[in-house]
Amino acid sequence: MNWDDLRVFLAVARTESLTGAGQVLRMDPATVGRRVARLEEGLGRALFARSPRGYALTDLGVRLRDHAVQAEAALDAALEEGQGEAGLTGTIRIGAPDGCANFLLPQVVARLAEENPGLDIQVLAAPRVVNLSRREADLAITVSPPKTGRLTVQRITGYRLHLATHRDWAGGDPLALPLVGYIPDMIFDAELDYLGELGRERVARASNSVAVQLQMLRQGGAAGIVHDFALPFAPELVRVLTDRLSLERAFYLVRDAADRRSDRMNRLAEVLIAGLRAEVMRLERIAAGDQP
């Protein structure tokens, strides 16, 4: 068994399909299938249970995956030692909720790219939980710490949210305005369910995207919960009822536990956490009326 075979095996294990693995490896799915079959033939046992839903690992496949992930981390570490303290290189994909992806990561990524010109950075903005086991991303930012899986979880920073409406609002009770918020049956994390704290049940204008919600509020005639760090991007909006309604949530950085052995991933995590903390603080100061 050689590393190239293990690399193909890991791609199928993470994507649970030949097509997905082929996209990751830039290889024809039929070729991926032949490589998996050859590996299984050499072992004399099946690594995957095939079904119309895809490729699921057998017990042997799970054990081999764990060993392969460790070997992958060891290889990455060896390559990093050869690079010394040079700038970060290669490709990194960061998965994040779209609020973080739209209003925080562009500034953080710009500074990271400037300091590491050999690093290619991809941001996966997803209104759902990013699947690290399938390698949808190398790092994931979440609003709740995951409770299962072999993962490393670090708290990044807290952030604040307030009720906001258009500056042209005529006055009265802003909670009587139509409410902008998430599509109720598409809320992917309990921390994003604000209705109970608003004392409301109906969302008149809804989207699964925070960025779309912000644009809805900018049209006027409605109110909704907004991240303070997003308000500098929407000068038409103002916070209201700040003495009665103030929410706080947090971001967490999540990665595969095996990545703790990787100096490159540790350095990326450290820089990303510091950058996000600084950016949340900067934008919240602006939202509160302070100078940037």
From TrEMBL:
CDD domains membership: PBP2_LTTR_substrate
Domain of life according to the entry: Bacteria
GO MF, any single term: DNA binding
InterPro entries documented for this protein: LTTR (IPR050176), LysR_HTH_N (IPR000847), LysR_subst-bd (IPR005119), WH-like_DNA-bd_sf (IPR036388), WH_DNA-bd_sf (IPR036390)
Keywords for this protein: DNA-binding, Transcription, Transcription regulation
Domain HTH lysR-type, residue spans: 1-58
Classification via PROSITE patterns: HTH_LYSR
SUPFAM superfamilies: Periplasmic binding protein-like II, Winged helix' DNA-binding domain
Gene3D superfamilies reported in the protein's UniProt record: Periplasmic binding protein-like II, Winged helix-like DNA-binding domain superfamily/Winged helix DNA-binding domain
Pfam short name (any one): HTH_1
Family statement: Belongs to the LysR transcriptional regulatory family.
Name of the protein in question: LysR family transcriptional regulator
Species name: Histidinibacterium lentulum
